[in-house]
Amino acid sequence: MKKAGTGHLYQRGQTYWLEYVVDGKRFRQTLGTSKKAKARSKADEILAPYRAEGEADRLAIIASRIKTAKTKAATGGAVAIADAWRTFEALDTETRPDPGPATLKQYIGQWNAFATWLQEDAPAIKTLSGVREAHAKRFIEHLKGRGYAVGRVNQYKIFLRMFFRCMGIVGAVAENPFQNVKTQKAIQNSRQTFTAEEMRRIIATADGELKTLFFVGAGTGLRLADACSLMWGNTDLVRRLIELIPNKTARLGEKAKIKIGIPVELAAHLSTLPRRGPYIMPGLAAEYTGGKSADVSNRIQAHFKACGIQTVKPGTGKGTGKRAIVLKGFHSFRHTYVSMNADAGTPQAIMTKLVGHGNAQMTMRYLHPTDRMVLQAADALPALLEGPKVEKAPAAEIMVPAAEVRALVEKLTTKNVAEVRAQLLKMLEG
């Protein structure tokens, strides 16, 4: 499956599915039939544009599909569930959004999840016009029952609402079953940062690979998946650098690497570890990638509790009848890392690159202002009220030539962040 236009059939239960590659991206979609001959025919139809020899032929096939889809819809022709994605994909970009490859892959996955669930929940529904609001609400409850986070559930709602809206434009459905299904308000910033004393306690009382894991989390801000699967090949202890493609972005087809500096203490700890294969923590890597990530997370939370740390919001979680709102977990290392770097003066643009966020807005969600940051902001404000002014004790001024700062900033790149930061800090220290 290396070239466009190729693919293979496989069965999930009694239903045939097609897996194929387009522009280096792997796609899967249901064919909605248990008959192999019919499945092959549908697969050939799907793959036809990608098998076309020239761009003109490909465009001609797509244009024909658009015309057919619009004509069918306009004349009241029903769109089968099994044909729904192809019909949606064939619509022009004036009718539907034109997403990038990563988003399109996400859309396909969300549609297939819904179509598969619908086939199991309501097998009598064969066309889009048969989907009702009751089905939409049951599907959302199905996602919640699987433990999906509020944000992820909302993503499904938003996509499916858009999907049926577009299909309504071309007459494939009379009503949008997801139109009145409300999105839930996600709990913002429930995750708290660790104090410096809590981090020392967590690391000091752990042993084995768990100790290393906590060391890595505190010193790099890596997500749990990336920390557990960290490889020696991504780690340079001499230069004190980690360079890798985060698992989260890799799943979406992104290939951009992030670069993180390794604190001296962490580098010293890693240098004492034996090298037993490609992974720094081979036991945790095998567990996490082998389907036992929940066991790893449970062990982490148990350790935090043993350290006297409140991990969930009181009144939520086991025995309360309410979903647990996590206050402190492994991801808190990431929140702490962002906040500590902000406190140390790391530019937000650099911080966004260090943690592998797609934009600065995401990084801001991880920023938890410290007392020092808050007081600095307050002291920078002009007088808010008329009246006697309270004189503040003058802080020792450090005069840094603007030209020197500008020169350093202008030569800043993702490769010399640590070096430039060190130079700036040295200038500020006088």
Helix and strand topology:
Blueprint: E1 7-12, E2 15-22, E3 25-30, H1 36-51, H2 55-74, H3 84-90, H4 101-121, H5 133-145, H6 150-169, H7 196-204, H8 208-220, H9 224-228, E4 235-236, E5 241-244, H10 247-250, E6 258-261, H11 264-271, H12 282-289, H13 293-306, H14 331-343, H15 348-355, H16 360-365, H17 371-379, H18 402-410, H19 417-428
Antiparallel strand pairs: 1-2, 2-3, 4-5, 5-6
Helix pairs in contact: 1-2, 7-8, 8-14, 12-13
Largest sheet: 3 strands, antiparallel
CATH superfamily of one domain: Intergrase catalytic core
Report the span from N to C terminus: 60 Å
How would the global form be characterised? globular
What can you see in these coordinates?
The structure is a single chain. This protein is mainly alpha-helical and 430 residues long. Among the domains are: 79-186, DNA polymerase, domain 1, CATH 1.10.150; 196-337, Intergrase catalytic core (hpI Integrase, Chain A, Orthogonal Bundle), CATH 1.10.443; 400-430. The chain is 50% helix and 7% strand. The protein has 19 helices and 6 strands. The strands form 2 sheets. It has a 3-stranded antiparallel beta sheet. Strands 4-5-6 form a 3-stranded antiparallel beta sheet. A hairpin with a 2-residue loop joins strand 1 and strand 2. Helix 8 (208-220) packs parallel to helix 14 (331-343) and helix 12 (282-289) crosses helix 13 (293-306). The radius of gyration is 27 Å and the shape is globular. The chain starts with 6 loop residues before the first strand and ends with a helix. Mean pLDDT is 76; it is low at 366-400.
